[in-house]
């Protein structure tokens, strides 16, 4: 016997699934057309989802995308199941190979949330423990993910100077323009880095992990004492995080993209 449908719930879930499958925010008219829903009902559903944080309305572009609450749900799933389970083993192998501490993080609003942490032997403890949140624009992990977000979503997260914070005296991006310039370099290189912006005297390199749609689902990073790592070693660490990210992407059934590309083709 078939389970009876609840029309409102069915439409809501189809709407969220549709937004999750898009690489960039879309217009309400496009949503209504794709899902074969009346426009008035589509706007009502969107308004309710915006109110609860599951959908983000980009006023200037008149577009809709997934909101912070939807990312919280996806993050909880990732922490509990495939990403953390798969990522932990890859991070462990990476740390064993290079002798520096590694971690795996996902984006939550303007923060990164650490879901895997592996400390190397004889290395200092880090602030990036599992469950810790740090402003994404300061971290190598966050920059690796932010570099591949659609431009409207990045503007929604970092639209004004008030959206930027600092943890140390090291200069980090403090305006939307500075962040965009930094992320352009990250896309070109395929590797993100930070130097003393999370913790004094520490640096990190990171690479993005992608899901089946090519979306930036997470980032793999290695953190090290900067005084102990020269240019050649830093290059070796960058190669290691790139390979680790590619391996997690492969195991997740994700689709890798080459440096210089993004979900929106920017």
UniProtKB/TrEMBL annotation:
Keywords of the record, alphabetical order, are:
DNA-binding, Transcription, Transcription regulation
- The chain positions of domain HTH iclR-type read 6-68
Species assigned in the record? Brachybacterium paraconglomeratum
Its BP terms in the Gene Ontology are: negative regulation of DNA-templated transcription
What is this protein's name? Answer: IclR family transcriptional regulator
Extract one GO molecular function annotation from the record.
Answer: DNA-binding transcription factor activity
Every copy of the IclR-ED domain together lies at 69-254
Ranges for region Disordered: 240-266
Please give the superkingdom of this protein's source. Answer: Bacteria
Family matches, as InterPro entries: GAF-like_dom_sf (IPR029016), HTH_MetabolicPath_Reg (IPR050707), Tscrpt_reg_IclR_C (IPR014757), Tscrpt_reg_IclR_N (IPR005471), WH-like_DNA-bd_sf (IPR036388), WH_DNA-bd_sf (IPR036390)
């Amino acid at each position: 016997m078939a389970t009876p449908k609840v029309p409102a719930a069915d439409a809501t879930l189809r709407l969220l699934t549709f937004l999750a499958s898009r690489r960039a925010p879309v217009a309400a008219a496009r949503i209504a057309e794709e899902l074969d829903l009346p426009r008035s009902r589509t706007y009502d559903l969107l308004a309710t989802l915006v109110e609860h944080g599951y959908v983000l309305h980009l006023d200037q572009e008149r577009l809709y995308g997934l909101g912070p609450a939807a990312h919280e749900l996806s993050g909880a799933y990732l922490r509990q199941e495939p990403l953390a389970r798969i990522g932990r083993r890859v991070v462990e192998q990476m740390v064993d190979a290079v002798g520096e501490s590694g971690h795996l993080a996902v984006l939550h609003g303007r923060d990164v949330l650490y879901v895997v942490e592996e400390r190397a032997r004889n290395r200092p403890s880090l602030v990036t423990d599992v469950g810790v949140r740090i402003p994404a624009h300061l971290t190598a992990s966050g920059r690796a993910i932010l570099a591949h977000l659609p431009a409207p979503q990045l503007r929604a997260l970092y639209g004004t100077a008030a959206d930027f914070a600092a943890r140390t005296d090291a200069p980090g991006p403090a305006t939307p323009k500075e962040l965009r310039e930094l992320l352009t370099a990250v896309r070109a290189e395929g590797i993100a880095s930070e130097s003393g912006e999370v913790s004094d005297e520490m640096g990190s390199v990171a690479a993005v992990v992608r899901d089946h749609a090519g979306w930036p689902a997470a980032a793999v990073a290695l953190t090290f004492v900067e005084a102990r790592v020269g240019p050649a070693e830093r290059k070796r660490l960058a190669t290691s995080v790139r390979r680790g990210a590619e391996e997690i992407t492969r195991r997740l059934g994700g689709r890798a993209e080459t440096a210089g590309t993004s979900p929106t083709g920017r």
